[in-house]
Design goal:
This protein is of the alpha/beta class. 49% of the residues lie in helices and 17% in strands. It has a nine-stranded mixed beta sheet with strand order 1-10-17-16-15-11-12-13-18, with helices on both faces.
Length: 530
Amino acid sequence: MNKIKKYFLIIAIILFVIYVVPNFLLDLNILSFFDKNSAQSGIVDMIREFMFQFRSILSFLFTFYTISIGVIIFIENEDPQTTITWLLVLFIFPVVGFVLYLFLGQNIRKKKIFQKEENIRTKSLEDIAEIQLNAVKESKIFSEEKHSLKKKLISLILNNSKSPVTINNKSKILTNGKQKFKELKKDLSNAKKHIHIEYFIIKNDKIGNEIKNLLIKKAEEGVEVRLIYDSAGSWRLGKKYIKSLKDAGVKVESYLPVFLPGLSRDINYRNHRKIVIIDGNIAFTGGINIGDEYLGKSKKFGFWRDTHIKIEGEAVYALQNIFLNDWYFCTKENLEDLKYFPKLKYYGEQLIQISSSGPDTEWESIMQSYFSLITYANDRVWITTPYLIPNESMNVALRTAALSGIDVRIIIPDIADHVVAFWGSRSYVSELLKAGVKIYRYQKGFVHAKTLLVDDMVASVGTANLDNRSFHINFEVNAFVYDKDIANRLEKDFVKDFKNCDRINYEEYEQRGALQKFKEAIGRILSPIL
């Protein structure tokens, strides 16, 4: 089936080209140049007549292929929102929609691209997950009702991510870029054996060069340094930046290079992860990329509110495994070596589970984890997300929780970084407010954190937004921490953030103007695909 669709789309591209060229020539009336020569006018008339007839035939074929593309979209897309959006775009803008789908929508290469990624999943971690799953079922540790939420989520992630729950850990919430980069630079400076870094966005600016110089210094000291950057997210990084790293011995790879990345910023299957592993026992992940804007130095965004987490202990193994798989995908170099999983000292007793998701995974594990947490919450669900574009399942879960008396609060930005996503987010506000969800617009600057706090038992910090792209398309990673101290620490950040927010009033929001409603409608239609 995939092979048939592949050839179908190749023919469609060829057809599109030969459809556009004659139309372009006829619209320019380029043959009129030859009409002045009476000897040639008869031939010109014949050519013009042929082109008109040819255009009519092509118009029919192009319409047929466009309808066929619609059928393919209907068949291959499992998400109803995405399916309806693409069909609407094709119906309203047939030519533009046709081109957009060819470059952004079709996923016939998905299984082929990521099959090798699936094939190198570390079997040992899967075996451990299977053993733990049986242990959780039989253990009396989670038999008390107050621990039922932990038990359900742990079992879910063991099943859908094959990610073991780890115990020998301690973690630290890093609020905003200043805390994150101070801690990161300190630990990078102290690295002794290896540094593995993976980011969606790396900027060639002040902090970007500080990190670059640290990596160069450590490579020259003999530390193994590997860096993966997403070719679309970091498309402005520059060859000079990369060359200076490679010249110093840093191994650098771009993730899934794209043609004309400046025009393909939101192309499918991007690596949206932010991971740093140092010596196999320290790791960082969360919402903060590498760039000055994450330190609040952007004139457009001003103060940048974000959250990262530093982990020491066994959970680092899971993040290391993710990096090594991504490295293999980029290079076909298998780095499965025990030296990257060193023997660990005692760090503490925090339960941490790492959940990763992407187009290479069988289950949408992070989305399922969010859904599970929201539906099983007893007291509260507090969320911070820059993009509030829930699929139908998440939308129903949030509204049902609020209608059930759960304290559901969501912090969103009041500044647009992506216009379509901004208005798409606003389109969900009214129905969520009506159900009793409390929604807050962040006023101090731009909020980019991806955090979730449920009751006083579970906290999530990671890279996944509450939107279609994070749940279904991009590669993401989240740390789920089952620890009351971390929950309390994250709660303090939420309480402080609420004070810097404007809570949206349902009655007032319903009075918004027609223009805003129109923008919301367009954003809602386009957000599943852009």
